[in-house]
Design goal:
Helix content is about 10%, strand content about 35%. It is mainly beta.
Length: about 55
Amino acid sequence: MRKFYTTEGNTSSKKQKEAYPILALCEKCVTEYIVISEGDRTYDECAKCGASD
């Protein structure tokens, strides 16, 4: 099961979606990102590795 995470992206961007993208990540891939906040669980694929168990 994956969760939605608000992560730190391109902080120099003026667009909120690029500066702090919300990604569905698995437990293995979330360690590669700077997490701002944790959201709800999801059945979506992992944005990094594509895991969809």
